Structure formats: C-alpha cells, structure tokens
Amino acid sequence: MPRAPASSDETVQQLDSQLCFALYSASLATTKVYKPLLKPWGLTYPQYLVMLALWEKDDCMVSELGERLFLDSGTLTPLLKRMEAAGWLQRQRDNADERRVRIVMTDAGRELREKIAGIPACLLQQSPCTLSELQALRLQLQQWRDHLVTLIPPASN
Questions:
Q1: Which one, out of 5, 26, 57, 142, has a CA that is 20 to 30 A from the CA of 66?
Q2: How far is it, in rounded angstroms, from Cα 57 to Cα 80?
Q3: What is the 3-state secondary structure (H, E, C) of 59-102?
Q4: 29-35 long-range contacts, CB within 8 A, separation 24+
Q5: Rounded to 5°, angle at Cα 74 from 70 and 77
Q6: 38 with 116: CB under 8 angstroms?
Q7: First to last CA, the chain
Q8: Does residue 102 contact residue 94 with C-beta atoms inside 8 Å?
Q9: Separation of alpha carbons 54 and 103, rounded Å
Q10: CA 38, CA 3: separation in Å to the nearest integer?
Q11: In terms of pTM, does the model score above 0.90?
C-alpha cells in the first residue's frame, strides 16, 4: 500500500480536513433529507435506489443489481425480500440456472415511478447549487468513485 506523504501541517489530520468524512457526512445528510420525501410511499432510501436501478433495467439478475448499486448480496437480499413483500418486485429463479435469481418489477413497482417522479426536482429546489453545479459535482464524484474502485483488491470487491 502506498504511504501517505509526510506533512508537518496538523490540519491534515483533522476530521474536517478529510475528504472521506465530507463524503460520509454528506451521504448521511442526503439520506436524512430523502427520508420524509419517501415516507408517504413506504420507501426507504436504499429501496429508492433499487427502484431507480430497476426502472432503468427491469428483469435483471440480483448479481447485476448488486454490481450496479455497489451492494453485496448479504445487504441486497434482505432489502429485496422486504420490497417483494411490499409488492414492488418479484424474485424468480432463473430458468437457465436455478442458482441465479432474477428481479422483475411488478405493476405496482412500475406505477410507483410516476408517483415519486417529483422527488429530484424537490431536492433541486432545496439546494443552494444550480442544476449545472450539481451535475458537475455528480460527475466529479462518479469519476472519484470509479478511480477508487480500481484501487480495491479483487478479493475485497
């Protein structure tokens, strides 16, 4: 593992100087802002992310969905079970390989899309940033994430 460069500046070791903490705390704050927006539909933030992914690509394998969302099966499976119980999706064994599980959206899951379509606009209205600033930030974060993924040892993925 590469060594961090030595620094005499003590602020480098302060919590608020850490990019990782800024990302972590921003993620927590984002989840908290989404919570009341999703509550009327009984959705949690992770469930919302699953629905967004399924609206892009329905009828996919659990493994594909996990890769798309950066979630392992131990985290994703209980989430999908709760969503299936809510009636938004169905889990089905793959005909070609019984070990694989397909995720198929139900009519209720597809209808949910229109009901919560205004959530991104609601968040944009509450933001101090313009749409173009948020798009640039999103792109930077995606590039940073993609770079970090290349640094993860294969056994840790």
A1: 26
A2: 15
A3: CEEHHHHHHHHCCCHHHHHHHHHHHHHHCCEEEEECCCCCCCEE
A4: 33/123, 33/126, 34/119, 34/123
A5: 90
A6: yes
A7: 17
A8: yes
A9: 8
A10: 43
A11: no
Per-residue pLDDT of 67-101, as tens digits, reads: 999 999 899 999 999 999 999 999 999 888 888 89
| Domains of the chain and any CATH numbers | 33-117 (1.10.10.10), 120-151 (no CATH)
89-93 vs 101-105, strand pairing mode? antiparallel
Mean pLDDT of 55-71: 95
Question: Residue 71's pLDDT is what?
Answer: 94
pLDDT, residue 5, reads 60
Q: Say how far apart CA 116 and CA 118 lie, in whole Å.
A: 5
DSSP string, the chain: -PPPPP---GGGGSGGG-HHHHHHHHHHHHHHHHHHHHGGGT--HHHHHHHHHHHHS-SEEHHHHHHHHT--HHHHHHHHHHHHHHTSEEEEE-SS-TTSEEEEE-HHHHHHHHHTTTHHHHHHHH-SS-HHHHHHHHHHHHHHHHHHHHHS-GGG-
